[in-house]
Amino acid sequence: MSQPTERSDQERSPSTSAEEPASGTAAAALPSETRPAVTTESNPMDGGQWRPVRPEELLRKNAVVDESPSELPDNPKLIRQRRQELEVHLRSCPTDQDAFRELAAIYRKEDRPHEAKRVLTEAVRIFPEDMSLLWELEEAKLARSLQQYREVSDLAARLKTSEVEREMKRSREDWAYRRIEVCNARLARDPSLRHLRLVLAEAYIDSDQHDKAINEIDELVQYDEFSPQAYLLKGKCLLSLGQDVQAMAALRAAGLRRAVVGPLPVRFAALKLLCETAERLGLDLTLEHYRRHLAIVQQDIAKLSAAAKKKHA
């Protein structure tokens, strides 16, 4: 897959912040307490067949720096003034690392990841040994790619033209490529970051590289903390490859295994796919078995949802 080109900043229109949640059914890299609620329909914002993991999910887990852009003042006039001061300051003092970080944080707060990327690219050039700056630059690249994807998705929802469809395909490929690029770089620097293999597998799936996705997934099925999500992704890959029998075995491991009980959203997604596949193949008795388990999971999800609403009432 060739590296997609990025649009100029002049072409960028205001969009949803890259820090906002994305919907979906399987949050591969999220801890259980932050996984999103289950949804049953795909969404163009989900990046294809699987929800792309957000930049903050991908990178802020095991973060190497502790920065808090939210601590910046909320006064737009003061923020703009400080940004201008930092831009001028860095022209005369280009080795002020703290100024680079603060300026990049301001651009992120302003939802301008393209400018944050520009600032951090220069910072990494000056301080090539600083891994925390490289980490921030990778964040900015992901945020910029996701921002463009959302902009084009919004446009595609309003306009149905061949040009918009081509741009949608390009932005989807770019979002997948950026995740692949960053995950591979992170894993090369630190192979212990196993959770990134799930993120990487999702990106490979979004770019229709199912064989590569399965290779990443097979590295994770031996780890209980990752195996339910890994088996779910593997089942989806195998379905896409037309290997229904193998896919159902993987989906059963994600949705029905008793030794390692998966999170409810994962079990729901796996059982739903099992029902769809059994119905398509005409396996009536098997279908009824899967439907019973799916109904139990749906009841558990409803109970948790009701308890959460009661808690916040």
From TrEMBL:
<feature type="region of interest" description="Disordered">
    <location>
        <begin position="1"/>
        <end position="55"/>
    </location>
</feature>
<dbReference type="InterPro" id="IPR019734">
    <property type="entry name" value="TPR_rpt"/>
</dbReference>
<feature type="repeat" description="TPR">
    <location>
        <begin position="97"/>
        <end position="130"/>
    </location>
</feature>
<feature type="compositionally biased region" description="Low complexity">
    <location>
        <begin position="15"/>
        <end position="33"/>
    </location>
</feature>
<dbReference type="InterPro" id="IPR011990">
    <property type="entry name" value="TPR-like_helical_dom_sf"/>
</dbReference>
<feature type="compositionally biased region" description="Basic and acidic residues">
    <location>
        <begin position="1"/>
        <end position="12"/>
    </location>
</feature>
<keyword id="KW-0802">TPR repeat</keyword>
<protein>
    <recommendedName>
        <fullName>Tetratricopeptide repeat protein</fullName>
    </recommendedName>
</protein>
